[in-house]
Amino acid sequence: MTVEAGTLLGPYEIVAPIGAGGMGEVYRARDTRLDRQVAVKLLPSHLSSSSDFKLRFEREARVISSFNHPNICTLHDVGEKDGLGFLVMEYCEGESLASRLARGPLPLEQVLRIGTEIASALDRAHHGGIVHRDLKPGNIMLTKGGAKLLDFGLAKPSVAIGSGAHPSGPSLMDGATEQKPLTAEGAIVGTFQYMAPEQLEGSDADARSDIFAFGAILYEMTTGRRAFEGKTKASLIASILDRQPQPISEIQPLAPPALERVIRTAMAKDPDDRWQTAHDLLLELRWIAEGGSQVGLAAPVVARRKMRERVAWGLAAVALVAASTVGALLLRKAPPPRTLRTQINPPAGAPFRFEISDCGSLTISPDGRRVTFAAAGDDGVTRLWVRPLESLEAKAIAGTESGQFPFWSPDSRFIAFFADGKLKKIDPDGGPALSICDVEINPRSGSWSRDGVIIFSPSSVTSVHRVADSGGKPTPVTSLDAAAGETTHRWASFLPDQKHFLYLVGAHSAGTRSEKNAIYIGSIDGKTRKLLFYARSNVHYAAGHLLWVRDGAIVAQRFDADAMKLEGDPIPVASSVRYTAGFFHGTFSVSDEGTLVYTSVAPDQRVPLAWFDRSGRKISSLGGPELWAEAELSPDGKHLAAVLEDPAVGTLDIWIYDLERGSRSKFAFSPVSEYSPRWSPDGRTIVFARDLERNNWSDLYLKPAFGGGEEQLLLASEATKFPTGWSPDGKYIAFDSFTTDRLKPDIWLLPLSGDRKPVPFLRGDASESGLKISPDGKWASYTSDETGTVQVTVTSFPEKQGRSVIGTGNATASKWSRGGRELLYGTGAGELYAVEVTGDASRFETGVPQLLFKSRSLLTGVGDISADGERALLLDLPPESQSAPITVVTNWAAVLER
Predict the structure, then answer these.
(1) 551 catalytic, yes or no?
(2) Is the model's pTM score more than 0.90?
(3) Is residue 702 situated within a structural domain?
(4) Range of the domain at 442
(5) Which residue, among 666, 664, 740, has the nearest Cα to 708 in the 3D structure?
(6) Which of 123, 134, 736, 864 is catalytic?
(7) Looking at the DSSP assignment, which residues form a beta bridge with residue 687?
(8) What CATH number does the domain containing 446 carry?
(9) How far is CA 694 from each of CA 168, 516, 545, 698, rounded to the nearest angstrom?
């Protein structure tokens, strides 16, 4: 059945055909709800009456939906219309491997990279008990994000790897009921060119059949030739059953001998002589990629079973030699362990994200074998990535989009992280992200004990809580002392007894050296609170020491975990470490086995501002290098209200810049942080927020922008408040507000006449913030997550009649320009969009959002746009290639012995 363009299958609009095969027709389509491209696979109409084919179609849906792997095509949806079944899958934009092979062999680096990606995908499928059975270059797409394994239409369930049963055992479905196979006994299902001998003979296919096909694909990628040829189907089958492919070394003399061995073993005629699991093959390819085999070096060709026999005899001989020399060895003093430093660079096209709320994304597994970090891919979305230290490849972890503050399980198998208002956990080797519990706004990282207890901070202004790793409701194990000025307990980290933990007690309004910031010991029963020392950093226990950041350096001090007391003095371990003062956090992590990872920064982290045009081209620089936190232009564009970080004390200060004269002056003077300056419509007054010294609230103040006049307290209440703008007539100030009881922000209005009593403008279950009122005072834009993703929404002001959603989501902020005829908004992918406003004062209508440009600077949240919408004032960040790598220090404790 051919489906015409424009046909709707539920919410999916058919655009164009992509291809067809025996198991279905595939179309490119548009998801009208999310405005994204998808691939729709239809069961052909001539097969609709076949119950077997319908069953196989449903099987494919179950198979694909059970996977969550970056190299396996993602299933979005399943549906049926007018008796026509269809699957909705990820649209993989790129080139098929078959198309690429038509141009000849691939470079060795690409062979190994694509090979490891497909081996990883097969490993995931086989561990889930699934055999593909039709692996071929046409079912592998080469995308910007890596290779993707497609089309499980011929897949069959099998015994999962590691179940204790042999892979060639009987197939079971649904755990209990044995199903009738979709293929008659002796029938051949698959593509001849890459089929294993046992498939051609009509025998059961298992995971090793996929390995044979994969070996044939690797052979073709390396040589540019098919492993088996034949002028007819009969001669092709005979070639697969009886003949060996031409040696790779004769076609590609520079290919590593170990790679030829890997491929030859994969294509062994007898399944018992092949690699028995895709995981074994994956490890071999990774070893070769890391330089484990070079041209001209002899490579072992003995099969693993024979190798085991040889090893057994070898061990016996070694034992005899060892017996005669052990005495001498015992008398020899072992050489002192050495500290080794290496670096990890960002993945290609995916810069690290360690700025602001991603400052805690770097973490190493307890066994010291894998590192997790945040990076932004080609789509601009920040995800968590995992990089084995013995590998050169890092992989994005599907399902961790916008994930923050990850931490590992004690067995190094799972990663916990925060995303979408949840604490989640995920297996980085493949599998869905599972929710553990709800969290509040701005949660902070935690620690996972061997007893299955997770401790963390549900928000940036709460105490430490505990929850079972299997899920449940978090309960507090520390209590904030508001009377003492405590505003946060965070960075909880278990001590060796798994009952006590370290955590930071902090005061947002205090400086970095204030005694209001200190490291304490707590306990999971909530009964312990012991002061250790004063600091404003995350802290970890490892190798009998505590490690934290002080004055830009990681220091280590001996710690008696039994007596719970410090000994000796702090000793520097690493310098120039990234430290984010606003989060009280140094970007480092340490494993139980003795490996330290951290990110470095230049001694001066300051950057200037710069003007950019609507295409993202830099026009000119503005101001000198500073630690910018916010920047807002005055209505006439002649001045700038900027928030700068004072690294000496860790507070935020407001400065006024005269853009015509190139001068600046400090706006307000207090020992606490001041931020969110918003100009009045006439440009003569500024409203701003100021932290309180003794609790976690902030109050609103009003002060003349020039002349140093008296400041006026506008609003004091038991809440944290951020002004976002004024009404154009100057009668109202809009502000966001949240409390410790309600951590989702609401939008309020503060009238500047009458009783000046604030009134809620938007207050509901959703998070709503950033109100901006149009220049004519008729409309108001804001961001809301009411739909499940953060979007720009417009409603009438002040009536709140009707709501118009702008864009597709992932929005960060909005601003009116061109006298209200245009609305600009940013996204979490670092994009700036413009949408034309075509309605009038009684009817809000817009055109289609247009992407102006994409910039890493837009991810920082620092900057503003000129009133005419022609220029953007943003941070002038250095090129991504200049970003600091991750430093890896093995046996870091040896530094302390020098």
Answers:
(1) no
(2) no
(3) no
(4) 349-604
(5) 666
(6) 134
(7) 678, 702
(8) 2.120.10.30
(9) 68, 10, 33, 10
